Amino acid sequence: MNTLACVKRVPDTGAKIVLTDDQRGIDTSTLGFTMSPHEECALEEAVRIAENRDGTATALTLGPEEADEQLRTALAMGADEATLLETGEGEWGPVDTATAIADYVAEAETDFDVLLVGNESADAANYQVGTHLASQLDLPFVAGIKTLDVEDGTAVAKREVGGGEEVYEVDLPAVIAVKEGLNEPRYPSMRSKMRARKQEVASAAPEPAGADCLEMVRLQSPADDGGTAEILGDGPDAAADVLEVLRDDVEVL
Amino acid sequence: MVLAIVEADGDAPAESSLEAVTLAREVADRTGEPLEAVAFDVAGPGAGASAGGGPDESGDAAGGSIGDALADGLGEYGVDDVHVVSHERLDAYAPEAYAAGVEAVIADRDPDAVVAPGSDRGQEVLSQVAAGRGQSMAANCLAVESVDADADAGGDAVELPDADGSYELTRQRWGGTLIEEALLGGDPKLLTAAEHEVGFEPAADPADPAVHALTPDLEDAHFRVQVDRYEESDEEGVPLGEARVVVSGGRGVGGPDGYDQLEELADLLGGAVGASRAAVNEGWRPHDDQVGQTGAKISPTLYIACGISGAVQHMVGCKGADTILAINTDSEAAIIQKADYAVIADLHEVVPALNEAIRDAK
Lengths: 253, 362
Ligand SMILES: Cc1cc2nc3c(=O)[nH]c(=O)nc-3n(C[C@H](O)[C@H](O)[C@H](O)COP(=O)(O)OP(=O)(O)OC[C@H]3O[C@@H](n4cnc5c(N)ncnc54)[C@H](O)[C@@H]3O)c2cc1C
Fold this sequence. Notes:
The complex is a heterodimer of chains A (253) and B (362). Chain A is α/β, with parallel strands linked by helices and 253 residues long. Chain A has helices spanning 37-52, 68-76, 94-107, 129-137, 190-198, 238-249, and strands at residues 3-7, 9-12, 32-35, 57-63, 81-86, 114-118, 141-151, 154-161, 164-171, 174-178, 202-204, 214-220, 230-233. In chain A, a hairpin with a 2-residue loop joins strand 7 and strand 8. Chain B is built from 9 helices and 17 strands. The longest helix of chain B is centred in the N-terminal third of the chain and has 17 residues, at 15-31. Flavin-adenine dinucleotide sits between chains B (250-252, 276-279, 290-295, 307-309, 311, 313-314, 317, 327-330, 333, 346-348) and A (12, 14, 34, 37, 122).
């Protein structure tokens, strides 16, 4: 069974995000990059399915040349093959992104049984690359998945809803958008990282279809609430003050 | 006309749907258009569980009980007409069939914009509509507002729709850490309302909506994906998303055993335990407990953050809390700027002392 995992390169930032001067991007001069978290789980799942069901796992990213770094990580995590759809400068919209991936899938030598994407990317969170991809390939699509069991010809996928889970059974091939929590992505070993450095990464430079009607104008940081907490104490003695706050101010007691 | 997609929670509109209605009303007010809604009358697995259309025992296809019940709630929010989609084959949520229902209303009513809730289903159904049209939707919108793209931040007000027919809108990026100003084209414009962000308010002019039953043409292809069954969770205690108090632990908790004290505090306050991504990555807590951009977004009355630094991706999950109390050894931690109250101390000393104090006080 052959799997494809589509991953996105995003800045790895835990601190306050600093914008570029033109306000059209994040200042990444001091930041590292990472694979967007939902997609990291998509990749892990693709590798597991390929391992357990005797097939291959392909990692694909659409992004700048530097996204080679995330593909190397994907190879180190066990992907058999990796493909970079290079975009150059600027960010592609969701329809153009999905179209480029769909074109790749249609022409690939491998027939993919399970196509995994992240539910939404950490940065743009457009929530629709998977839907457009499935629609263009005329495949079933399920989103928001946190449990997945792949059997011959079908996938049983579960989505959390209030108080339980909805269960979907879909025929394969299918496109499945997953959320973090689906699995625990593995940490690649030093050896697999070394090996991944030498592996081949296929690349292509598709042209944007120009189909998107959503255009970013500018980014802003939300107004800083900039307050500072009222300090209730600096040791176990603070418990009495906390108790008072819980009882009288917050009224949860 | 501006169309809002509405999910039912029992027989009332779900909160995230009221947010979609509120955003749709903003657009309708600006453009001077009427506001209409589309809802689904579906009984079956998980129908009511995630607010997907109320359980309608009768299976009545004539706009039935759900439409009338919803109409009451939606009128208050200024909705003029409610289109209720039902179909004999639609006995459980099916995203492509729902999208076909929305398409049927679009074909009939030719809306200027369609606004969906930012819930899982709202994002999914509208993205299906978008995919069917080969058109982009704008997810997680905060406002459709008049920001002149060339003006300085703040912008000049212009009327909507603007010259080229695009909407100027703001939407969330990075889970709300950044705001994007964007232009959205398309006919109709497709957008979802950022969940827990847009807020909802009854309209100044309530309406008395007419209910219209609608049965779309559905084919096998619309049922390739459909909820097969619903499995109830066997988790005990208060679910994280509904808890009034959440006691969350981060890397500072130091290990899985350290959560015993947090569990106890949560119990004493009738709340639930949450965690940061760092703690989840360490394997100390299941991912279902994770609060943040890639975890749960919650809005409890009180959020107690123990040993959590307050990274932006964490804070977007708990910024809906009315009050935040931080317990941290580091007075410079980012969370101290974001919390209402703080104790600068080792959580392993403070939490047991607090548990004792609460027990004594009870
Ligand atoms: C795309 C993306 C998405 C992300 N999504 C999420 C998300 O959904 N949720 C999330 O939480 N994070 C998320 N993160 C990770 C986030 O950036 C932080 O890495 C993470 O929140 C840090 O967790 P922490 O505060 O527990 O750990 P740390 O940053 O290590 O902080 C630990 C804190 O504990 C304090 N401490 C240590 N010992 C004690 C003690 N004994 N008593 C009291 N205090 C103590 C320290 O002073 C410190 O402030 C995401 C990151 C990325 C890039």
